[in-house]
Amino acid sequence: MFLLNNVLNVTAFQWRNFEQNLKFDVYSPRKSSTSRKVPCSSSLCDLQTECNSAASKSCPYSIEYLSDNTSSNGVLVEDVLYLATESGKSKITQAPITFGCGQVQTGSFLGSAAPNGLLGLGMDSKSVPSLLASQGVAANSFSMCFGEDGHGRINFGDTGSADQLETPLNIYKHNPYYNISIIGAMAGGKTSSTKFSAVVDSGTSFTALSDPMYTEITSAFDKQVKEKRNQADSSLPFEYCYTISAKGALSHPNISLTAKGGSIFPVNDPIITITDISSSPVGYCLAIMKSEGVNLIGENFMSGLKVVFDRERLVLGWKSFNCYSVDHSSKLPVSPNPSAVPPKPASGPGSSNPEAAKRPSPNITQIDVAKPSSGSSVHLHFSRTFFAAISPLLLAIL
Fold first, then answer.
1. Residue 398 to residue 395: CA distance in whole angstroms
2. Total-model pTM
3. Which segments carry the region annotation Disordered (predicted)?
4. What is the Cα–Cα distance from 267 to 302, expressed in whole angstroms?
5. Mean model confidence pLDDT for the chain
6. Which structural domain, as residue segments, surrounds residue 8?
7. What is the mean pLDDT of residues 118-137?
8. Most exposed: 149, 189, 279, 376, by fewest CB within 10 Å?
């Protein structure tokens, strides 16, 4: 089992400064002694029809994303990924991987989205887990742990444990996403038998649901909240926001989902907190966005869990977990990055098709919130970890 440590912890105050001073950790194939361009003749090249007749011509790639006008184009490159074993005596393992080296970006990539790239973890043959499994480096499974402290871990080759809860993955040939079936939900003491399928997307910061499940869950949550609901700010993608009383006590209904097979998926972090300029909490929002025709279980719903993407048994597993309970390595300092933008997939069945999603995009990271009433400015305080997209292609966005 191999560990990749990635740390991202950004507040709204840090984020404003980061946007104004955006810096890129540029990967240059010319500066890497182990890099080589993937030729058009390679079996990994999907766009061979766009190559010329020269066998040495670099293979191009092109991918579009859900956010309006957002795309990435460039050439495929092969280089070496260095991984550290977690169990026993730690050692470094080298694994060649293929990824897209971006040359022309549009939309969100010109602003703040994924300035240092996207880590492709999908079921496509070009994703990192697929390449590692095909080379015999790791089992065809991996886990992601989303810590409540804003840190995260990914373990390639992790097949889970006997005490985890599970649900089967819905496999669609033309839709390489981690799709599961939800057969019920609970908000506080109110249950719902709403059934829907959803993409489990670690590359989306916040959960996005379409009707009727969106209205059923949010309405049940709202009816049980004791705090006063306030008018949602236009800059926020959330409909249900509340003012915290002067006592500062924060109490909200718990949310959980029931997956196919009966396993309960606990939602440990369904809200985001709004703070004033002194970082004192003044409100919170239910961090679920309304979408059209697509359901995405985002990273905020996976907080406090280790989620196992078992591609051999075709199941999704999860359990409550302390991300660093067995980790003795130091945390890697990583520059602030927003969450990635999911790519447009081929058409899929019903609500499992993320391409049906319209604005607002389910990929929001940091938002400045307008002042509700007092004299001090108020900001959304948000801290998230992984920017890995459930994507069929690993992109190095330059």
1. 9
2. 0.76
3. 332-368
4. 7
5. 74
6. 2-396
7. 88
8. 189
At 140, the pLDDT band (50, 70, 90 cuts) reads: very high
CATH of the domain at 137: 2.40.70.10
Region 227-239: mean pLDDT is 80
Number of structural domains (the chain) is 1
